# Entry
Amino acid sequence: MKLYIGNKNYSSWSMRPWVLLTQAGIAFEEVRVRFDAFTPDSQFKTRLRSLSPAGKVPVLVDGELVVWDTLAIAEYLAERFPDHALWPRDMAARARARSLSAEMHSGFTRLRSFCPMNIEANLPEAGALIWRDQPAVRADVERLVVMWRQCLDEHGGPMLFGDFSVVDAFFAPVCTRLRTYALPLPADVARYVQAVSELPGVKAWVAGALAEKDFLESQEPYRLSR
# Structure
């Protein structure tokens, strides 16, 4: 299998299936397509549109099959590798994990907009201003705290449903955002963020992001230069 991804430092969507595959120990080939621009004639769009009509990362290629969109990729991998239990085995837990993943997939727009993923950066000053001035960001974080705390209390951690699953891979980029911008969290939720950060798959992604050293001004709303 081949997984097409964008820049590791910035591409939260790419991070999800990459961490899922890596953490689960499923072999794949990484193909990085650098963010240059997102105009229709950019090299990025041209390369991705040769694979899928969406023209976005990530894209999973398994033989003749092409799967795009993070949720579709996660569901395909869960069916392709049932022994890995990528979703919780319990039916009720699995349904809830899917609900949380779908909410992440379509929601938290203010947190995404004001705190774009930037693993290499350390932006506590920007985070403090965002936290002060953006009530919608505070509401997004409050929702995270409620959903994470409920799962951790019910399943005992360290991951949301006990063992690592798709839903933890989906929230891994959020954990990097919370750390980059130093947004305030209660201690129990901060422990979950730390546990996700210490997963081998997440650490491997972060190491790759730090090694890129590929500053893209278009992805840096709070830092126009180093």
Q: What stands out?
A: The beta strands are 2-5, 29-32, 59-62, 65-68.
